[in-house]
Specification:
By secondary structure, the protein is mostly helical. The chain has eight helices and no strands. Helix 1 (2-27) runs antiparallel to helix 3, helix 4 packs across helix 5 (106-123) and helix 4 packs parallel to helix 8.
Length: 193
């Protein structure tokens, strides 16, 4: 159940961002946005922040269901989990933003989303034990943000992990966020030109 939080956030956040930005380009509203004196980072931040709030609504629903329906204990700090959720949601939104700069239409954006989501789900340790996978699958899984988030959320909720226990996983999430945001901004600038 804690892992389900990461899977739901990965799928919905990437898909919503990729489709929203691609839809704007298809409908011609992107040209109106480009006519304003807004920098690419500001556009990206403006598009991502509302989805962070939507992600938190999803988390509240999942946590409530885990407590009320499945009696999953919350051993660790909810404040620590909430602060790391911002990082994870932003990383997924940056991936969705990148896909929106690559896709020419909403169908392509949807396909890219699933090509990212399926390996994330299969190679993160959500469906199969991570250490039981072959070395090449573990190497791919280590690049995916869901892998690190699953370790974090399971550690906080089920084991009561503190910051020292999850610092390396948080660093990996932050590195992924920076890389995905850099690619998204670079691609967005190319789209502007």
């Amino acid at each position: 159940v804690p892992g389900l939080m990461g899977v739901v956030l990965t799928m919905t956040m990437i898909m919503m961002t990729a489709l929203a930005m691609t839809r704007e380009r298809e409908r011609g509203t992107m040209e109106n946005l480009l006519a304003t004196p807004v920098r690419p980072f500001e556009v990206m931040a403006g598009k991502i922040v509302p989805y962070i709030l939507i992600g938190y609504v999803q988390v509240v629903v999942i946590l409530a269901a885990s407590q009320l329906l499945f009696r999953v204990p919350m051993v660790g700090s909810l404040a620590l989990l909430s602060s790391i959720l911002v990082l994870f949601i932003a990383a997924n939104l940056a991936v969705g933003f990148t896909f929106s700069t690559l896709a020419r239409n909403q169908l392509q954006a949807m396909q890219m989303t699933f090509f990212f989501f399926l390996p994330s789900m299969l190679l993160s340790g959500f469906m199969f034990p991570f250490r039981g996978m072959p070395g090449w699958a573990q190497a791919i899984g280590e690049v995916l943000p869901l892998t690190h988030f699953l370790r974090i959320v399971r550690g906080i909720m089920l084991k009561g992990n503190q910051w020292d226990d999850i610092a390396l996983e948080v660093a990996a999430l932050a590195a992924f966020l920076l890389a995905a945001a850099a690619v998204a901004l670079a691609r967005y600038r190319e789209t502007l030109d």
